[in-house]
Amino acid sequence: MTENESEPAGPAGEPRRSFLTSVGAAAVGALAALAPVAAGVAALLDPLRRSSSTEGLVRVTRLSAIPEDGSPKKFTVTADRTDAWATYANTPVGAVYLRRTDAGILALNTVCPHAGCFVGIAPDASRFACPCHKSSFDLDGVVNDPASPSPRDMDSLQVEVRNGDEVWVRFQHFLPGREEKTPV
Amino acid sequence: MRTLLDWLDDRTGYRALLSDALYERIPGGARWRYVWGSTLSFAFFVQLVTGVVLWAAYSANAQGAWESVWFIQNEMLGGWLLRGIHHFMAQAMIVLLVLHLMQVMIDGAYRAPREVNFWFGLALLGLVLGLSLTGYLLPWDQKGFWATKVATSIASMTPIVGPAMQQLLVGGSEYGHLTLTRFFALHAGVLPAGVIALVVAHVYLFRRHGVTVPEKHAEKPDGMFWPDQVLMDAVASLAVMAAVLGLAIWTGGAHLGAPADPAEPYAAARPEWYFLFLFQWLKYFPAGWEVVGAQVIPGMIVGLIAAMPIIGRWRLGHRFNLGVGAAILAGIVMLTWLARAEDAADPDFVTAKAEADAAAERADELASSPMGIPAAGGLAMLRADPLTQGPKIFAASCSSCHRFEGHDGLGGVPTDPPSASDLAGYGSREWLRGLLDADRVTTDEYFGGTEHVRGRMARFVTRGLPQLTDAEREDLAKVILAVSAEAELPAQAGVDADDAETIEEGRELIASEAIDCVRCHTFRGFEGEDDVPVLTGWGSREWMLGMLHDPTQPRYYGENNDRMPSFGVEETLTRQEMELVVDWLRRDWYSRQPSM
Q1: A24 — contact with chain B (CB < 8 Å)?
Q2: Which chain B residues contact residue A180 at CB under 8 A?
Q3: The pTM is what?
Q4: Min Cα separation A110/chain B (Å)
Q5: What are phi and psi of B387, to 5 degrees?
Q6: Do the Cβ atoms of B518 and B512 come closer than 8 Å?
Q7: pLDDT per position as a tens digit, B373-399
């Protein structure tokens, strides 16, 4: 082998290795790599610092647009949204189902609490049905089929009626696939 | 030349390297069953080349991804073929990986000393699946968007680190620009680099251990890698390429759906076919068992496969491994088949699929229109399209009273009978002829469900008009042309221009004694009554928008208004929504074929 030729053939056969030099080499090398690695990791972890961009309540519609007969209706939620470097004024950010109940207006997020699909209204309008893994909810958003894979009921959202007939909703998303409602 | 190569060899030693690489002895000779690894290397090489070229035209942001992919697909020379090859070769890689894994299992090629190489192979399978998953999102169409949301939701279910993991993957709490930049960095940077590193290690270890020769072939003479095995590898690679090309050409390349829209339901969300078994699998885990179904059991199965080299040491271990492998494969095939069969038998899914295809086609039609894709992006383009949005707005806000060709705009039929007119063709000559038809005016198509069925107009049509003489009837036909021309429907522009003289006559005949619309209605120079719809500009965009805004104005129904809401005054529809539904009813939208 060519490497052997350049090595001085000492009594021990191999050149002496100093423990301090080994430690020094590793430490200096690590120090040199520290700054770029630290900067890279910091930038990669940045999304953890950011919370949801939609905070507070947003105006969704007027009371008169919600069916009188208590059937649910889908409304697009438009709000100002900042997505990384771009800010969008008044842009569709998602959708809610609104329906009249005896207790007032019920607002349900359209996102399935199981795996994040868009829950639809069954063709006969008797229940909510998720098109992906077949979760089924009644019109109050409560799981109504024991075979439903959804771990919890549809996510209800805080609703306020302001200025007489304006419907405002706190449009929030929650972690999917778990029993408790944890806001994202 | 010879001297130059000698010089190069002296400085680099390339000949020894080349000879090492090519003149490898293959115990028992070259065989077809050794080709899988080489076809996979070939497939990966194709992905690298097509991927880099796609990269040169792709823009990883939420307002550029769908747009740039549309451009590659429809505008760039050969772009559709390039994308098609990349798309189908990705699927071919999955198939080849499974075949390779099966061959290794059957031959027992995972046994000592090849355990580590078996694990490298499994890691490569994981990386390739990761490439598929990340690549599926990059076109940023509805299909990729919703399917990938399920995948990141599953990642978030991981105990403890799940939420943080999801947030890091998605680049925030919601899908957006950073989701694409991150997925793209994984797809085009991290994962391919991992594949290259592992392939180098995999091939190095493979060369170190050599092929696994079954005993019955051990007596045969040795072969050479070059050219014996390389010829077989090349033939197999060509066959793979031919199959991929065939698929790409036959299907017209990879499908591109409508632009991703978080506010728009997508009921046809399904993963790529080789993930369908996992999708189907998830349906069987009731509440509380998601993590078990999505992570624990799949993880245990992968662990079992990884343990095969160790299990294989026992006397019946190899047979056990083969049994496990066959069971897993059978399970995957069955789940995939079940997923397909359930979807095919589900009318809702079939409808959703058809709607998704229609939306995709419409997005393509708009993008290739002379207006092109606006700077705000493909989604903004689709949101401003009357043909896409009109029916949805109509179904949501108009169809509780009105119908459109008998349905709710989207093809559904509400259970309650209509309580207002059918608005299909509103403003057209045809619609007006129906209104002035004594047999039709009191049906559900027109005034049947309304208060107006007892009004003066209905009385005039049912009692007055049947008494017209033939000559008066001809006059009425001209009046219909004149009033319908007020709508200035784009679809009627041609015939309106042709009939300009007749229309001019009709504008005078409207005041003739037998017809006399202007006794009640205002029309151009003729002053009618308040609270009776003005016929000047009847059915025009401006007229209809005003009607939607507030039908209780004196120029519309005023005090005689029957339940028609004031969408504009009450702000139940936005100005843009009203414009979209009006433009849709007036068939005022872009169409590739100019409408007649």
Answers
A1: no
A2: none
A3: 0.91
A4: 9
A5: -65, -30
A6: no
A7: 999 999 999 999 999 999 999 998 999
